[in-house]
Amino acid sequence: MEIETVTEDFSGVNEVDRQATSNHLMQWMRDNGVPALVMLVSVSAVFVALLHPIRALTESLNPCCVPLLGSLAVCAGLLLAYGRRKEGSWDRGLGLLLIVSFLSTLLLWALPDLLEGSLPEYTGYGENKIETYQAIVPTLLLLLSAVPLAASASYHLMGATPRAHDISRYGIVVLPIIVAFFIYGLLIWQVLSKGISNWDWSVIVDDYRNFPAPGQPGLRNHILGTLLLMGLTSAISLPLGIGAGLYVGEYGGRLSGLVRFSISALRAISVFILGLAALSLVNSSVDSAFAGILKGAQHTGPGGTYLTASIFLSFLVIPVIARCTEQGCRSLPRELREASVSLGVSPGYTLTRLILPWSLPNVVTGLLIGCAEVAGCTAVIMFIAGTGIYGVGPADQVTTLDFVVFDAFFGKEGVHSGTMGPYQAIAAVLLLIITLGLSLVAVALKRRFGARFRSGS
Amino acid sequence: MLRRVNSQVRRGIRSWPVILSSAAALVPVAMLLAVIVLIVKGSLLALDYVGFQDMLFTGEFSATFTNPPYSYGLLGAIWATMILLAVSMLIAIPTSLALAVFTTEFPETFWGRRIREALGVLAGIPPVLYGLVAVLFLSRIFAIPDFSTLTGGVLLALLVIPFMAPLMDDALQNAPNELKEASLALGATRWYTLKNATLPAAFPGIVSAVALGSLKAMGDVIIIIFAVGYVPYLPSPLWDITGRGAPLTSAGAGLAGSFSRGGAPIIPQSQAWLESSVGYFSALILLAMAIAVLCLLSMLQWRSRRLQKTSAE
């Protein structure tokens, strides 16, 4: 037997390999070329749409909006034909998208003429109306067409499997989330940077005084005022809120529907209404010692004391605490409750030893959320607040950190806003720290005691 | 169920916790009534002098802080409230729905948990800071006007999203699990299940979340004072959102508060006194709208609960 030595000539194999690769590529292009193209166009359209409202880029990006939208329409048609060829049926969603993008192109193309025709000549406030519409309408129309198109294209690219269907659609969900959190981050960063760049430690520890040294700025009274307001409101609303929550969640009587309705109503009505109610009480002509305390009658200037403000702020906080307590009551496991009854325990003992300790995390969370709302609620105190010169006590004129921010723009010219104006950024930072800190602790508590916030069992 | 277990209550003996909590529970009811009474009392003067028709159905507005002759038509304010609500809900509803879908579908992942916690923290941002942002930088970065209905709508949407998204998330999670499981078992994709089974089942919850969110957006006054202003008027193309027509909240605040008049206190029996009464009237309109929406919501919830009970039997 002869052993043949076979000399392999590999150059030919490489030829075959390269041909196979390029055939493979051509095959891929033939299969997925259309969705890939559509994906490219729609992703760039999304980018243009998101960057368009930025003032620095609006001018330069404006001319490409109409061509981009037109090409989106063309791509929708291409994808429609592609889907028909591949799956044998018309994708109705894509057909709708084709019509929508075509009409949007026409609208966007005719937009400048439409705007010129209907908007009057604009005078005052120095802003061009047409410019604004030119900035936002293309964004909206582009996003409306491009996002579903990108989803469909990526679905076809990933092979048109059910899993691809899921992944492509959940991509739509992620986009608004990213944009929203970006804007929130921008907001917080701007406030912090403006406040920190103007930071001045002496402003925090000094009082705001108008005499003897005129115009000495100081936030101390305002900080103490915010803390006092939170304390007074908690003291008023804690017992009442817990009681109301227990009534609705535990001892539900005939009136529990009405109580629940008024609790949600107090949360839902505008804080502006509560502020006006406070104002009417302060401006009323009732004369008694207690009314005098409420009206701040012993001070000159706008009336309204910390006591008044906390009474009306507790309108806001009692529903929060009541709702949290009710959730806590409902989450108490039935076995514990039945055990206490079977042992012959009186309702009072059950309350103090079982229900209240169990709902304690809920109550504390509600209290923290309520305090965060108190610290930020300017609407109630802006009608009755003052300058804080006289000190911080329940019968003193009310003033808080958020009022400083408001007053710097809308306060009396000269005395208050003139002196304190530059420091409103510091007040804003302090306010942000206080409220975000409270909310953070509340969220941490909710996470730790998660089961107690779900009513059940 | 609870009352049957608690034997003493069933026997009708009122123990001290029940008495105390009943007393405490009547306080919110009394507070709501007190607010209604105070607002109605405050607007009586305006109803006498200016008249219901003139205030509600006219668009002409000029007060002591604009120029004479004085007329107090609030139609522009009502229209501005509607437009602001529309703009903010147009932005907020899809975003909140997206957030709720994400936190429902991926609740145990790293990002799902972080987003839920972040929403809880962002819900605590005070509205004053949104207003400050409007003045500080919003129009320097984005090509929208400093002060306009559009700016107010965007800021209101930012305010409402952390409030509405957890509510929608709860609604989606409380949708009956059997529907979702049945759809998945029959081979539908997760997205298809979400769109065709979970969302329709959770629709009442989502509607109530949207209603509560829109009440909160309608009621916020500080953001609007910063971003829109406090003078109401009807914009000349009605859909114009770059105008500065004030809605009911800030129009009422400007009328009744002293900040619009340079801090001068309102002297009784003056023109400003009448104007503050018009402010109370706009608060009354808001209050009536809020209570109407809440009653509708309660009826919807009661009906859906009754439907669930009868279908479960």
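Chain B touches chain A through 111 residues (CB under 8 Å).
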